[in-house]
Amino acid sequence: MKYVFTNGKILNGTKDMQVQEGQVILVENERITEILPAEEAGKRNLKASGYEEIDLQGKYILPGLINMHVHLAGNGKPQKKQRDNEALVKKIMSNGLTKAIAYHMVCGFAKDELYSGVTTIRTVGGLGDFDTRLRDDIAAGKKPGPRILAANEGISVPGGHMAGSVAIAAGSIEEALQHLEIAKAQKVDLVKLMITGGVLDAKEKGVPGELKMAPEMVKAVCDKAHAMGYKVAAHVESPKGVKVALQNGVDSIEHGAKADEEMIALFKEHNAFLCTTLSPALPYALFDRSITNASEVEQFNGNVVFEGIIDCAKAAIANDIPVVLGNDVGCPWITQYDFWRELYYFHKYVGVSNTFALYTATCRGAEMAGIGDITGTLDPGKCADMIVVEKNPLEDIRALRNVDMVVSQGKVLRSPKVKKKQIVETELDKFL
């Protein structure tokens, strides 16, 4: 697998990236070997050296996107009413046949991520050990999909967020620590905690993100996870939850909440980063309730969370706290192929430039995931994780909606296609 990509407009993924023309990209096996002027490449007989030319015909080539908050068990299908996820997962995982069907489904969702231009995902709560299993199947070439950094099941508490579905319900610190041993045996890449409730967990107005996990449990899990060499990500959707998480050792805040000086100081003190997720709260906050089938309480709380996430992202950026992007795929209305919308919302609601949004979803994501030496930018020596689009995403992020080519660890996928949900497209497009 030796390719030379010619006639492309290069966006390298760095913070100050600009369009680079007149250069070619050489790829051998999984890696970018050289980026050099087209004239210099023309002087070499690359074809005789076994390179296949891929003429990009003036299209834009950039790093593959990095989705830092994924639940591979969900498809984003809108729900008329809340499901009993715990009962559903218990049924799915109860026998070999249904487990096999579920794993096949998860594999399909990972393929959708890749075919839509996402070459790396970070999973933060899944079914059993499916995520590490699929990670290894993809790495071995048995399944198509993005690079996976996997947490497998998260750790919640009885009655806590996602307890019994994509997280175990730890009734004590001892149980939580026992699960860490299981996660270690499964060779996870990170640990996920569900510290607060979510939008749909709250039963009253104004109380989304209610603290569910005791600070003592957060600290015990973080201490042991760090001793094992793992970073800890935490679901938190309230100011109190964010502070408890940071005070007790969490490395990344997933979602966030309205920030104050104390919160900013804690982020800096603990060298934590923020994973902004605007996509899941937007439908509950901004859709008409006749579309979402949300109650008045759910819509009110959705707006509280949505505004809190926006505020947290703005405060983090203003205070040089690292921010990455995830779209919490699996939540209603959030599909496995729509990560580009998260970049668009980041630009629209947080107010960053298109360049900064793209940098956040490529280079910055890789750095914060601990794989900045492997992927995230187009540089010699790094993995050939690239996507090709017709128009310039620095001018309009919506250019990422249609991907003409995906290169994943040196493997070229031409004209990738995913099956889209029309109702989701129609309703979400109203907010572009």
Automatic annotation (TrEMBL):
It comes from Simiaoa sunii. Residues 60-412 form the Amidohydrolase-related domain. The keyword Hydrolase applies. Pfam families: Amidohydro_1. One of its GO terms (molecular function) is hydrolase activity, acting on carbon-nitrogen (but not peptide) bonds. Keywords: Hydrolase. The keyword S-adenosyl-L-methionine does not apply. This is Amidohydrolase family protein.
